[in-house]
Design goal:
There is one protein chain. The chain is an alpha/beta fold. Helix content is 45%, strand content 20%. It contains 10 helices and 12 strands. Strands 2-1-3-4-5 form a 5-stranded parallel sheet, with helices on both faces. The model is unreliable at 1-6 and 357-363 (pLDDT under 50). Bound molecules: adenosine-5'-diphosphate.
């Protein structure tokens, strides 16, 4: 019983270069039943957060060497730590850049000298918000996971009906079965994306790195995507010399498939889709350019976020997860991804992977 109760006590990491402040905060928080970890510098805070991720961080802004903003930025760049709420601490007489505090990922701030009831209320609110978010994510994950099995059965039957059994059906029924099968496959892909994104976010998907021959990979992807191209012209430009990168081939193949199928999906039938591969210094850069409808600048960042879609196209069957998956997969390889686009002219989605495998990171 005791162990179970203790496991639920929130653990708060307090970061301040003044030992007296650490003592005061620790006393106040332990009196309220919280567990605390205390550290005197930003560097130690990062180490402590990695070793034992806390439920919330109280982070002083003014510290020598690494200030609170820098610490917060580094925390938010780590997949495993980025969801931990950070509340900034600043002294009343100091000028605090509140906009910067929120921009680097802080959720709130408190000022010294502390009004302890206020500090406590803010901590409670953010712990509760985090708990609810996690509960929602866990529930979604569970539901999505459980949808997969019945859907696999439906897909199997529809495949049989659409295959050898199709000739026993009338023409209109055949068409309906084919439509149902296509939608079921799309649903399966969506579910796969949802599960993959949450797996990658939780740091549970390990990269299976192996030498990846880009020439072969791109040609294989082109063969599978050709069927979607309709009347679009699909071209590829890449150096003749072999290009090998240490990468998770299955993940990178899916990144390419996502970018290509988006380019074809959002480009009118007479348009062009072009893939250009360029080795540049220590990177290999792959760009997928289309002559489609383009994306307004305010969406360029948003579309890489979970469920991010361009406002006026929300109704189409899609999840807004494809690009999130691409971003997570590319960044797990130590790479970068981005978009350049102009409404009415088209878009270039590009990603760059390091050629040296020592710059690869574990997902
Ligand atoms: P989905 O296609 O399932 O909505 P994605 O994450 O792949 O999810 O894409 C997010 C959004 O970005 C799309 O809904 C679309 O609005 C926009 N988008 C992606 N690729 C392109 C493209 N090549 N041209 C125009 N818009 C695009």
């Amino acid at each position: 019983m005791t162990t179970c109760k203790q496991a639920k006590v929130p653990n708060i990491l307090i970061v301040d270069d003044t030992p007296a402040n650490l003592l005061l905060m620790t006393r106040m928080l332990t009196e309220r039943g919280y567990r605390t970890q205390t550290v005197l510098s930003g560097k130690l805070a990062l180490q402590a957060a990695i070793t034992q991720p806390p439920d919330l961080i109280l982070l002083d802004i003014t510290m020598p060497e690494m200030n609170g903003y820098e610490v917060c930025e580094q925390l938010k760049a780590e997949t495993a730590l980025k969801e931990i709420p950070v509340i900034f601490i600043s002294a009343l007489h100091e000028t605090m850049d509140k906009v910067k505090a929120f921009r680097v990922g802080g959720v709130d701030y408190v000022t010294k000298p502390f009004q302890f009831e206020e500090v406590y209320a803010r901590i409670q609110t953010h712990l509760q918000l985090r708990r609810l978010e996690k509960l929602r994510d866990d529930l979604t994950h569970m539901i999505v996971h459980d949808l997969r099995n019945p859907l696999t059965v439906i897909c199997g039957f529809l495949e049989t009906l659409d295959g050898g059994e199709a000739k026993k059906l009338g023409n209109s029924t055949q068409r309906l079965v084919a439509l149902a099968r296509r939608s079921a496959v799309e649903l399966t892909t969506m579910i796969g994306s949802l599960l993959d994104v949450s797996k990658m976010e939780a740091g549970e998907m390990k990269l299976q790195r192996e030498p990846c021959d880009f020439n072969a990979l791109l040609h294989a992807v082109l063969v599978t995507t050709q069927a979607l191209s309709g009347n679009c012209t699909l071209t590829l430009a890449m150096p003749e010399t072999p290009l090998t990168v240490m990468a998770d081939v299955a993940l990178i193949r899916r990144v390419l498939q996502n970018l290509l199928s988006n380019a074809l999906k959002y480009t009118p039938d007479s348009g062009n889709v072009r893939i250009v591969v360029t080795p540049f210094e220590s990177e290999i850069r792959i760009a997928v350019t289309d002559t489609g409808r383009g994306i307004a600048p305010q969406y360029h960042q948003h579309i890489f976020e979970k469920f991010g879609q361009v406002e006026d196209r929300k109704n189409h069957l899609g999840t807004g997860l494809g690009l999130t998956f691409c971003k997570l997969a590319v960044e797990a390889h130590g790479g970068r991804i981005g978009v350049e686009s102009e409404v009415g002219k088209g878009s270039t989605f590009w990603f760059a992977l390091p050629l040296q495998n020592d710059s690869l990171s574990e997902c």
